[in-house]
Each structure stands twice: as C-alpha cells, then as structure tokens.
C-alpha cells in the first residue's frame, strides 16, 4: 500500500535568533519552533464550541476525535494493547525500567520524549522517520531540517531504549512502537494514570526534510483563526487545540524563544502590553544577556511544575496572565478559546483526563502496519 504523505501537517516553530546589538530582539520569517500536540474525545461532537460566527461553529461542531479527513489516519484494526505479548512479552517492562533510569539523570526526558513523539507523528505519521540519520534515497532527512536538527532532543534516549529491547528481542519491536511506549511511560512518570500503549506500528524507510519545510509550519504570530483553520484541516476542533497546547505543562523554553516579549515587543522598545509587570520583571531577570550565543540563554519553565502533567499551565495563564510564548498568550485573549482555558484552569481533573485520551489519537496517526515499512534494527538507519 502506498504511503500518503501528510504535507498539510504542521507544528509551530519559534526561531532562536541571535541578538544584533542595538537592534533589539527580532524574529525572522523562517526557522520557527513550538510544540502543539493535538487531542480529542467522543463527547466533543455533542459539545457546542465557542465562536464569533456561525461559520466558526459550523467548522468545528460535529467533529468526533476519530472523524479525521479522508486518508489522514490508516486503520489500526490490527494494532492493540499487548501486541508483543507472544513475541516479546517483556518489552514494556524493559522500556519502563530503562526510561526510569534515564529520568534519574535527565528530568527533562519527559518533555523531550513527548515532544519527539509529536514531531514524528505530525510530519508524516507515527513511523519513527524523525529518528533516521539517512535514507537510501540520499535525501535530507527530517532530523536535518532546520526546524528539527538544532532544537529537537530525545532521539538518543530512544536509541538507548531500543538497544535494551534488541538485547532481549532482536528484530521484533519497531522503533515507532518504542517511541509510543516511551511516550506513555513519560506520561506515567509525569503523574498520569499508567496505561498500556497500543502496539503494531512499523518503521518508515523514508524521511524527508522537504516535507517538514513545505509550508507545513505556522508562524508564532498566527491568529487563533489561522490556527483553527490548520487544526480543522487535520480534524481537530478548537477545544482539542487548546488541550493539546497543554503539552506545555512540561518542559522549558530558552530565553531566545520569548525574550522579545519582555524587552522589545514588535519593535516598540517596550514589553508586550499583555504581560503584567511582575511577569515582565520575571522574564527580564531570567534573560539578562540578550547578546549571548544561541542556546546559552537560560531556560525558563512553562509553569511551576515542569516535570508534571497538570493544569498549572492553564492556571497561571488565567490567574497571573503568565505565558512565555506569544502563541500561548493568544489562547487567553481570544473569546473562542478563553472559556476553554478557564475550564481547564478551574477543573484540576480535566486536563489530566483529556491528555491521555488524545495521546491515543496522536500515536495512531497515519501509522504503517502489516506489510508496510519495516522493523529497524537500529533506529537511526534503515535495515
């Protein structure tokens, strides 16, 4: 079966741009990076969504989490929990043990793996194509793209876990499944109820940087309308869009991502007026040296619990108007998304419930299975 490339996928990338003395903090028109995972649930088809016009509601009502555009998701009928119970019964234990050991030395592994999973699934499906260093075609791979190569972390963690699995079950478990199992393990380590991941994915032999870069990445100053249109094409409604941005409940952002909001918003020489003074002071204190080299600015946590998947990201947005990324700030400014943000902030049980529900959808996106693809022995190269 031929593989359908999802050239309309995207995730938001923010540029890490050097500071030019005397010119302030500026964004370029390319090389952006940001995390937007995506979620859904059956009840959404019966929930009226907030919108400014009947067209808004018409676009996003009546979408269930699995009613994606035609050909967007292949059938997962042969996938399931316990997929390796006969062929590699210890695989999930191996992943769990290895990930726990990694986490002792690298608390950021939780955010890295979740983000890596998203980068893989939303470019060309959950096929571990993001892990390839090269392909037989000789084309530039996803990992080499400017949108991935300099910023993306976590591939080495999957290498370590894959090596442990290969010792026990050589040639049995795909890299795509190991990524999914690792993602579910990261979610459990971040405080969510433990669940078994679905298995049965195969690995791609194709990875193309051109797919990452072919108008598939929205800019960080996009309006909610622009994001809604993109997410709508992918089959996600506005509520799902907000919940998916809740992936920022874990992880950190370097000052390069957001410092223009604290120092020179839109070239005004003043901070972003949306940010309260105490937040501006916090960000200016965290990012005092605008002239430092890329990646040398200190990272700042998205919320006060950067290794826990909880609703504090939304709480701080509502109670303190604290956001790092400009794209996040739009969520509380737009009347269509603000009520959803407030719901997530006010009910501490809702986001932890919704996130696992939508991760099933994410990790099932456009998978290879059966005779498609292969099971790589090494995740960085095809067999």
From TrEMBL:
Site label Transition state stabilizer, positions: 115
One GO term of the biological process aspect: response to oxidative stress
Residues at which heme b binds: 248
Cofactor (UniProt): heme b; Ca(2+)
Family matches, as InterPro entries: Haem_peroxidase, Haem_peroxidase_sf, Peroxidase_pln, Peroxidases_heam-ligand_BS, Secretory_peroxidase
Annotated positions binding substrate: 218
Residue ranges of the region described as Disordered: 46-66
Cofactor descriptive note: Binds 1 heme b (iron(II)-protoporphyrin IX) group per subunit.
Enzyme Commission number: 1.11.1.7
One GO cellular component term noted in the UniProt record for this chain: extracellular region
Top EC class of this enzyme: oxidoreductase
Signal sequence region: 1-22
Domain Plant heme peroxidase family profile: 78-383
Subcellular location: Secreted
Main location group: secreted
Catalytic site positions: 119 (proton acceptor)
Record-level Gene Ontology MF annotations: heme binding; lactoperoxidase activity; metal ion binding
Binding site for Ca(2+) 2: 303, 305, 310
Cystine connections: 88-169, 121-126, 175-379, 255-287
Alphabetic keyword roster: Calcium, Disulfide bond, Heme, Hydrogen peroxide, Iron, Metal-binding, Oxidoreductase, Peroxidase, Secreted, Signal
Function text: Removal of H(2)O(2), oxidation of toxic reductants, biosynthesis and degradation of lignin, suberization, auxin catabolism, response to environmental stresses such as wounding, pathogen attack and oxidative stress. These functions might be dependent on each isozyme/isoform in each plant tissue.
Protein name: Peroxidase
Native source species: Phaseolus coccineus (Scarlet runner bean)
Lineage of source species: Eukaryota, Viridiplantae, Streptophyta, Embryophyta, Tracheophyta
